[in-house]
Design brief:
By secondary structure, this protein is α/β, with parallel strands linked by helices. The protein contains four helices and seven strands; from the N terminus they run βββαβαβαββα.
């Protein structure tokens, strides 16, 4: 179950995702020097619009795709705060593919209900939508903008 998974905070401490039980989650692997980085703006808009209804965005910077997140966690926070005014939770930089892929991303890839997609993450800003029960109910490729996911978020929040 997703709530038993531990993730690493930027300060090196660990926390279980159980703190997000009964919330709708959008989990995103991000990068600051990617063609999709501008999606931070729409992500923050969704967060501000729906956070008080039980919606959370979990941001996992990833440097696996052409070194597009080369900065330290602190530098990434500065960029995201100053340029995109993000307020959602950002975790320690991770790998999403390969032998060093985090437990969370291994779980997301293997437990997405619709198995027709490739298990491998193809690029930064791949998004996973998790319902209030902790089920991975949506996977959206990087070209899918956060605004395009809004209808699915609303539906899950209303369930």
């Amino acid at each position: 179950m997703i709530y038993n998974i531990e993730v690493e905070n930027q300060d090196g401490t660990k926390e279980k995702l159980e703190k997000y039980k009964d919330k709708v989650l959008l989990i995103v692997n991000t990068a600051t020097k990617c063609g999709f980085t501008k999606q931070y703006t729409e992500l923050e808009e969704l967060y501000e619009k729906y956070n008080d209804r039980g919606f959370e965005i979990l941001d996992f910077p990833c440097n696996q795709f052409f070194m597009q997140a080369p900065e330290t966690d602190e530098e990434i926070n500065t960029i995201c705060s100053l340029k995109y005014n993000t307020k959602f939770k950002r975790y320690h930089k991770i790998d999403v593919n390969g032998k060093n892929a985090t437990e969370l991303y291994t779980y997301l890839k293997n437990n997405y209900i619709n198995k027709e997609r490739s298990v491998r993450i193809k690029w930064n800003f791949t998004k996973f939508l998790v319902n209030k029960k902790g089920e991975v109910v949506g996977r959206y490729e990087p070209k899918t903008t956060p605004k395009e996911i809004e209808i699915d978020i609303e539906r899950l929040l209303n369930e």
